[in-house]
């Protein structure tokens, strides 16, 4: 890694992100005591109500990364516009500082997601996910887990008193776990292909998929992807008739792309339904997209159902 200056700089950025996450983990642990709960009374650029912890997480990430000479631009879910950081920087850091924040009030796992790309100018921020130099996420659950890739292998670290410690190297997604994860309350908005696929999952061993499926929905993408890395399955947040005008629910640059790189590097699949997730050309830093990822076989099966939707 040291021989490639772009990757070496990306590793230094990862170190800052890991430090920010460790600080945030500490804040989350005692947030209700510190009065950091409820909503902040403000909305972000996506029109979503911000929580005090969304704002605090964003502040921690920006503060930790501000001094890094490699970061030319930061893009955050909580910031309307890209933030110019180091003059002469060569990288962009794109992040969702606190994902799944609707789960905060019930003490369910939340997370941070990040992507590191080569970027000198603001225009460079709008590149497909295939250019990512590194990507990762942190899940703040019973343990604080960091999942990280530089595009070759995927590693899992867990936060201890002395920092993040490697727990599992070269994670590979198991192929044979029939488990799907989708917000079924949105069924009436789904396209025909998604409806058909989930119908056949529910039909289990009596249907064309020939296997009994289990279902999970945490409402925090970080927890869903951590589960898929650990035991396989498929996660779906497809664009539907309600979210189609915005492109979908999840954001391309700092949710879909980093998760896509992690899952694909671990041997899985990541698609919009029609396109490989990492091939989507972005048009806006807060662009939303249809996201389906998981074990390669199950993602391939899903694509077979929606390939003709022609969205
Ligand atoms: P957020 O970034 O505003 O927290 O939203 C992202 C989250 C994902 O973690 C999760 O997969 C999805 O939104 C949950 O959506 P829903 O509210 O439909 O359950
Ligand atoms: Mg999010």
From TrEMBL:
Residues engaged in binding Mg(2+) 2: 96, 99, 255
Any one Gene Ontology molecular-function term assigned to this protein's record: fructose 1,6-bisphosphate 1-phosphatase activity
Magnesium is among the record's keywords: yes
EC number: 3.1.3.11
UniProt xrefs under InterPro entries: FBPase_C_dom, FBPase_class-1, FBPase_N, FBPtase, Fructose_bisphosphatase_AS
Cofactor(s) the protein requires to work: Mg(2+)
Positions of transmembrane segments: none
One GO cellular component term noted in the UniProt record for this chain: cytosol
Top-level EC class: hydrolase
UniProt domain Fructose-1-6-bisphosphatase class I N-terminal: residue ranges: 17-160
Catalysis performed (reactions): beta-D-fructose 1,6-bisphosphate + H2O = beta-D-fructose 6-phosphate + phosphate
Top-rank taxon: Bacteria
Oligomer and partners: Homotetramer.
Protein family membership: Belongs to the FBPase class 1 family.
PANTHER family in UniProt: FRUCTOSE-1,6-BISPHOSPHATASE-RELATED, SEDOHEPTULOSE-1,7-BISPHOSPHATASE, CHLOROPLASTIC
Protein name (record): Fructose-1,6-bisphosphatase class 1
């Amino acid at each position: 890694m040291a021989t490639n200056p772009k990757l070496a700089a990306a590793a230094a950025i990862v170190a800052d992100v890991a430090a920010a996450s460790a600080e945030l983990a500490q804040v989350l642990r005692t947030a209700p005591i510190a009065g950091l709960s409820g909503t902040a009374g403000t909305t972000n650029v996506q029109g979503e109500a911000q929580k005090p912890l969304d704002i605090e997480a964003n502040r921690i990430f920006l503060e930790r990364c501000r001094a890094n000479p490699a970061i030319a631009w930061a893009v955050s879910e909580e910031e309307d516009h890209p933030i110019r950081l180091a003059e002469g920087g060569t990288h962009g850091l794109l992040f969702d500082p606190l994902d799944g924040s609707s789960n905060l009030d019930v003490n369910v796992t939340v997370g941070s997601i990040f992507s590191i790309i080569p970027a000198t100018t603001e225009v460079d921020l709008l590149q497909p996910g295939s250019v990512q130099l590194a990507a990762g996420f942190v899940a703040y659950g019973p343990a604080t887990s960091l999942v990280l890739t530089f595009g070759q292998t995927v590693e899992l670290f867990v936060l201890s008193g002395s920092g993040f410690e490697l727990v599992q190297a070269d994670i590979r997604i198991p192929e044979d776990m029939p488990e799907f994860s989708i917000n079924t309350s949105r069924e009436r908005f789904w396209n025909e292909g998604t409806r058909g696929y989930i119908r056949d999952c529910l039909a289990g061993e009596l249907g064309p998929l020939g296997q009994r499926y289990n279902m999970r929905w945490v409402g925090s993408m970080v927890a869903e992807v951590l589960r898929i890395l650990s035991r396989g399955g498929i996660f779906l947040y497809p664009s539907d008739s309600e979210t189609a005008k915005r492109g979908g629910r999840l954001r391309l640059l700092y949710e879909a792309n980093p998760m896509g790189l992690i899952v694909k590097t671990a041997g899985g699949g990541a698609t919009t339904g029609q396109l490989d997730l990492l091939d989507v050309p972005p048009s806006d830093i807060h662009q939303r997209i249809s996201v389906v990822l998981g074990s390669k076989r199950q993602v391939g099966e899903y694509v077979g159902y929606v390939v003709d939707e022609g969205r």
